Amino acid sequence: MKTIEDYILEHIDEEGSLLAAMSRDAHVKLLHPHMIAGHLQGRMLKMFCRMMRPKRILEIGMYTGYATICMAEGIDDDALVYTVEINDEMQPFATSYIEKSLHKDKIRIFWGDIEDLFPTFDESFDMVYIDADKREYCKYYDLVFPHLKPGALIVADNTLWSGKIVEACPSSDKQTQGILAFNEKIKHDNRIEKVIIPVRDGLTMIRKK
Question: Which of 45-49, 109-113, 125-129, 165-169 is least confident?
């Protein structure tokens, strides 16, 4: 029986052969293939970029590079995506696909910890995509916020966290605790406008006033 998600995917832009191949490859070779952004979320990220036309994007947590390529597709030729990934074991997989992308010249990859790397970026950013260690979302937010232009957009992934955010959460579950803390922090920050979109595992869109 066709699902709502099946119907949506049939009626939006195609993901393209490269991203489809990456998705198939991830499901064969990777331990956590569900962590890739995927077709729907990827088209949403591209659309955000089309609408905002950011000159500099920062991605915290690249994983396979799926979202990276989607955002690069949506930006102008003189714009750049800076993407940071701490897990260097992903390097062979991610770079093999990014190198095949027609938009690879708009992507700058940095391997390491965002806390170490961020001070070396002599940039202010128009858009930030956060999809890394859920325990550290508050830290990422505080790190980048002073360097965002007014009107800049932060997109935070997994903010509904498989529904765990409305369940009793043991103190030992640091990932869920991290998402809960982030969501509360965003709720009470009067420097921003925000909305949670219930797509996949939850996307929070945050606009700096």
Answer: 165-169
